[in-house]
Amino acid sequence: AVVSTQSSGSSGINAEYGDFVKGTMAENAPIIPISAQLKYNIEVISEYIVKKIPIPLRDFTSDPRLIVIRSFDVNKPGSEVDSLKGGVAGGSLLKGVLKVGQEIEVRPGITTKDADGNLHCVPIRSRVLTMFAEHNDLQYAVPGGLIGVGTKIDPTLCIGDRLVGHVIGSEGSLPPIYTLIEIQYHLMRRLLGVRTEGRSKGAKVDNLSRNEVLLVNIGSLSAGGRVSAIRDPKNQHGDKRAKVILTSAVCTDVGEKIAISRKINKHWRLIGWGTIKGGQKMTI
User: Fold this and answer.
1) Which residues lie closer than 8 Å to 57 by C-beta, 6 or more apart?
2) Stated pTM of the model
3) Please, are residues 108 and 123 in contact by the beta-carbon 8 Å criterion?
């Protein structure tokens, strides 16, 4: 259903957007014209979110797993040693329950390179000291929403979003660390956000090629990757698979969804998505 106002201009916009998404997965999606500044139709969006979008199932029984989307140092310059506080990580809890005082592990942790260019990771072990959601002090956190976790981690390891892309969980429960992943991928038919003239072939997404450099998004991590091998089936309905060597280590699970981007006109553009099927695990 298309929700629109009574103005003639709105119906024209609906038709324009309808033509734009025709033939895509969003073809039958509702189009709700809004004005955030004038606060028009904001209540319509709120009603649609509440009534039409199902509440996701929450897993409270598994071991906690939190993806870090930002981290920072809360100490002010010139603070005394006795008053220093540990680093703070902000993110979203995917599953489980995280409690104050719980022993945690951060993976991949501290990453270094040896003389041969091989990556080595040392997970960080710490304890949850405080937790906040907005301005509320929490004793435990459940999946859904964003939380800030105060830890005993050295603030220099958290300053300037250095923990972004890491995963926090209870000790011994986190998935392996990979430096090479094998993915099953799907490419989009055409590029999004790229201007093309008419029906030129510039909007078509070419298949992956060996030694091509891509940008891979896994959870909250954005990592560069080089395609080392490709298996392109002869039949149209077969699984397309590729092996990608990552520039940075990633803590992830088999079955995790990823996004694939390619550099086009000096900008990274989304070209497809995929699922992790395996990879080369790092020995810790």
Assistant:
1) none
2) 0.79
3) yes
